[in-house]
Design goal:
3-stranded mixed beta sheet, BirA Bifunctional Protein, domain 2, 259 residues, 4-stranded antiparallel beta sheet, alpha+beta
Length: 259
């Protein structure tokens, strides 16, 4: 999270070009959205029991278990000629890269577009603290089920969009991490979840690895956004700046548990 924030800051100052980053998590980590209320929604005892990391994102949205997944982030100026002013339209442009990535792993993904008034209202008032419980505007679905979840923030004139591309998922562990009004509610939500979300490898005869996913989605972003990606390695000074952000914010309980 600190590196995503640093990339946003550096891009706002013109120090780096628009950037796409792929990463993973060690240990597996539960991230919560910027506005989520931890005490009301998260089972912190289970987070600890499973040995998970815990962090609050700078972006909105709901809880995400980052485990067997490819995580991506896109950092680009709001003034970029290809970026629409509308948040949902910017999602559409950026997510075109994810869409092409799914094609490269052999899946026929398409954009989720809420059509009815009920569907649009549900997005404004989500009933679940679990991110993958329902698709939002222009998120990716395969066979009607969500396969990627994304969140976005805009700061200093820069768009940061990051999200999860799930390779495999432990649904029991995922649902252990949230609080429910009753066991019956949890059972119903977990049952419904199976109809709403699915991991890539549950849709494929041959599982793909993290490295294979990274290569596919790199190609996907290049095709979907009509760009050519060049590798970038942080300098020692940049690494130190990232660590400073981490220690002053994302590693502190005051940040992670504050809501």
């Amino acid at each position: 999270m600190a590196l995503d924030e640093a990339l946003l800051d550096w891009h706002s100052k013109g120090m780096i070009p628009p950037t796409i980053r792929f990463y993973g998590w060690n240990p597996a980590t539960l991230s919560v959205g910027y506005f989520q209320k931890v005490e009301k929604e998260i089972n912190l005892a289970k987070v600890k029991e499973y040995g998970l990391g815990f962090v609050r994102r700078p972006t909105g949205g709901r809880g995400v278990l980052h485990d067997q997944e490819l995580t991506y982030s896109v950092i680009v100026s709001e003034e970029h000629p290809e970026m629409p002013e509308s948040v949902t339209e910017a999602y559409r442009i950026i997510s075109a890269g994810i869409l092409e990535g799914f094609k490269y792993v052999g899946l026929d993904a398409y954009f989720a577009i809420p059509r009815t008034d009920d569907e649009k209202q549900a997005l404004k008032n989500p009933r679940s603290a679990v991110c993958f419980d329902a698709p939002s505007w222009y998120e990716l679905v395969v066979e009607g089920r969500k396969v990627a979840g994304s969140a976005q923030t805009r700061q200093k004139g820069v768009i940061l969009q990051h999200g999860s591309i799930i390779l495999d998922i432990d649904e029991d562990m995922l649902f252990d991490l949230f609080l429910y009004s009753s066991d019956r509610v949890r059972e119903r939500m977990q049952r419904n979840f199976k109809n709403k979300a699915i991991a890539i490898n549950a849709l494929k005869k041959t599982a793909i690895s993290l490295d294979e996913a990274k290569a596919a989605f790199k190609r996907g972003f290049e095709k979907g956004l009509n760009i050519k990606l060049e590798p970038y390695t942080l300098t020692e000074e940049e690494e130190a700046s990232v660590q400073e952000i981490a220690s002053s914010r994302y590693e502190r309980d005051e940040w992670n548990y504050r809501k």
